[in-house]
Amino acid sequence: MRALLVVNPQATATTPGGRDVLAHALASEVKLDVVETDYRGHAADAAAGAVVDGYDLVVAHGGDGTVNEVVNGVLRGGARPGLPLLGVVPGGSANVFAGALGLPRDPVEATYRLLQAIEHGTSRRVSLGKVASSGGELDHDRWFTFNAGVGWDADVVAEVEHQRARGLQASPGLYARTALASYFTQRRQPACLTVQIPDEPPFEDVRLAFVSNTDPWTYLGDKAIRLNPSTSFDGGLGLFALHGMGLPTVLRYVAHLLTTDGNPRGANLLRRDDVEYVRVTTREPVNLQVDGDLLGECTEVEFTGVPGALTVAV
Question: Which of 76, 83, 255, 299 is the most buried (most CB within 10 A)?
Answer without folding.
Answer: 83
